[in-house]
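[job 4471] stage=fold_predict status=RUNNING
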Amino acid sequence: MATEEDVRRLALALPETTEKPSYGTPGFRVEDRLFLRLRTDAEGWLVVFVADQGEKEALLASAPDRFHTTPHYDGHASVLVDLDAVDVDELSELITDAWRARAPVRVRQRFEAERDGDV
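[job 4471] inference complete, writing structure tokens
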């Protein structure tokens, strides 16, 4: 089970990430591009941006106990993640993928180079 503290720790560890309210809830941005936010109106749920609709549909089909959507998010490349149903390793992967989907190319390339030890 992952927590809001895990979300904050993992998100803020990524380059150029800041926390800034979004729709009245904690949001996380890479160079002011929102890539995830906590939902206080649905406690324990995290809105996570994904690369595209195909990835959204794949996540929803793969684990309906962990991933969900609502009509509000129809046509939007994001899913709702039940923090009670994911572990920290899966959460880390989801957050990093969301960050990659929204990060500017130069920031993402620098991150990948540092991660691969090319810097």
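[job 4471] summary: The chain is about 40% helix and 25% strand.
[job 4471] exit 0
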